[in-house]
Amino acid sequence: MSKKTLRLPSPSPINSNMTTQVSEDRSPQLKAARCPDTTVLIVDDDEYFRALARTIVEPCGFEVLEADGVTACLEALRARAVDAVILDIVMPGRDGIEALRELKTISPETKVLTVSGANDSELFLNVSAYLGADASLNKSEVASLGAMLDLVLDL
Fold this sequence. Notes:
The chain has helices at 18-23, 47-57, 70-79, 96-106, 121-130, 145-153, and strands spanning 39-43, 63-67, 84-88, 111-116, 135-138. It is an alpha/beta fold and 155 residues long. A five-stranded parallel beta sheet has the order 2-1-3-4-5, with helices on both faces. Helix 3 packs parallel to helix 4 (96-106). The chain is globular and about 35 Å long. The protein starts with 17 loop residues before the first helix and ends with a helix. The relative contact order is 0.15. Mean pLDDT is 77; it is low at 11-33.
């Protein structure tokens, strides 16, 4: 067997203006509202997480509603059509697992993205997937909410 040598072209040097071109505009580019008729309900007992999730999701063009627990979530779903729910799994009182079951009964077409920041979040998120959640996300990856909603809603 003869050995063959792979020859790669030598890398071209980086353009000296590249760093300047990249660093001139540091402002984030928000996407235009692309889904103004899409409503997302954020359900979490932590008001700071709801506010953070809203600041991530609203610039993506979603109309955002909030609920501070399972009871408020189910009331909102009975009062109004919602396209997607961002549902915290671990909450005091009635938890997200219980809410997920009832939510899928009340509104089976509503997409559900479960989130958790608990110590055993991987376990909770796996259980939520088994119970019908369309996607799940660890709260440490909250910056991905907009992209995850796009995937779940097939936008």
